[in-house]
Amino acid sequence: MNRYTSRTSPRRAVSSYSSLKKGFTIVELIVVVVVVGIIAGIVIVAYNGVSKNATEVSMKSDLDNAATQLAMDSKRNNGVFPYTAASANGGKGLVTSQGNTFAYSTKSYGYCVSISNSKTTKVFSIKASNPTKIEEAPCTIDVTTFAGACGVWGDNDGMGPAAGFGGPYGIAVDAADNVYVADRGTVKVRKITPAGVSTVLAGTGGTGDANGSGATATFRGLAHLDVDAAGTVYVAEDGGHRIRKITSAGVVSVLAGSGVAGSAIGTGAAAQFRNPGGVAVDASGNIYVADTGNHRIRMVTPAGVVSNYAGTGVAGATNGPIASAQFSSPDDIAIDAAGNLYVSDKGNYRVRIITPGGTVSTLAGSTYGFTNATGTAAQFQWITGLDVDSSGNVYVVEEYPGNKVRMITPGGVVTTYAGTGTSGCIDGIPTVARFSAPHAVAVDSLGKLYVADYDNFVIRKIE
Q: Which residues pair with 388 in a beta bridge?
């Protein structure tokens, strides 16, 4: 018995050791994997919770600091917030931590603030009436006065309300979001930086035909204008029946037009226009002109060669091929990225489209009136200016008695974008904002609108 035990006992020991060497059974392995997974999940959730909490704490801290700083700036400036993020905190900008970045814009009620980091972006409103209170909410469309003082005629450079205008008539925005204004009342072309600083690009303030650099040039009436990718500005000179060209350095020359009203095609001074209203530059540098008095759309090459592009020269509302289509006193023109031209056909109370293939159709409008609807069921009063955004939405301004900015979707649906229809100069949300004979509108790279508010002597911004 003892002998048997001495034989078999070592074998059992070896068998047990061998089982351990082979590892866990399948069931045991599954249990281990599940346990490890649960532990890892708990660790990840805990880490994410800590990370998220740290992110929100850092955002809240930065927002509290920003609100405090903006409140101090507002108090120092008699209730006026700084114009830009860079001008806040005595020009130092708002301080952030842990990779947070601020972006914000001035609103009539205060600020629309977004704070971002690698994990998230949040949008907040800060009201000037209570600048230390932060509300997490989407910012509404808002109308503000960007440059000039409401109802105050002026002719001076300056920042924001310190600048003076005599009757902003045409407006355009370049790729860097500088705003150009054809200031009809002072006979000058002004440039406004994104920060709101206004200076004179060209014009002495007198009426004349002089070419030259900046303050030595003169114009005979300023209508609409546009700017190309190089920063060259093209102005429709309706009183001088010409298209003038202004380089980014302010040097003025005549691109096309004899200075005498007519309809001749040709090159440079051999060509004629009759009270041209609007201009639009395409990607190739060709300039399309709403030749108001000739009821035509003209094209001017970069070399100044003028041709008839669309319209018969007789007032009418016929759609179809460009050679037989008709317009009635077209006032402004804009072009989208696909090369479609949009025309404010003022005499027909319509917005027309000209495709790159050469077909004219009506996007919206029919007869005089005010109706928000689709296509020809919609009505406009006095369309003087328009522009198109990157999504194909067209914005039009209705001068007096409309006093509104309207929006037309690519499908032709017309709505009121801003303005009550009553003349005035009131900032705020679109349903309370007021304009006074707005004449032109331009859209920047971020979709913000700038309005030449003619009778208020200011430039308004809608964002």
A: 394
Residue 332 and residue 149: Cα distance in Å, rounded?
A: 26
For 439, the token pair is 């004449």
pLDDT tens for residues 287-334?
Answer: 999 999 999 999 999 999 999 999 999 999 999 999 999 999 999 999
Mean pLDDT for the stretch of residues 411-430: 95
Q: Band the pLDDT of 17: cuts 50, 70, 90.
A: very low
Q: Identity (one letter) of the amino acid at 69?
A: Q
CA angle 405/410/411 to nearest 5° reads: 105
Classify residue 116 by burial, with Cβ atoms within 10 Å: 0-12, 13-18, 19+.
middle
Strand order, beta sheet including 101-107: 101-107, 110-116, 121-127, 134-136
CA distance 456 to 463: 19
For 346-418, strand residue ranges (E) read 350-354, 359-365, 383-388, 394-398, 404-408, 414-418
Distance CA 214, CA 331 (A): 27
454 in Cβ contact with 439 (< 8 Å): yes
List pLDDT tens digits, range 158-213.
Answer: 999 999 999 999 999 999 999 999 999 999 999 999 999 999 999 999 999 999 99
- Closest by CA to 340, choosing from 350, 324, 351, is 351
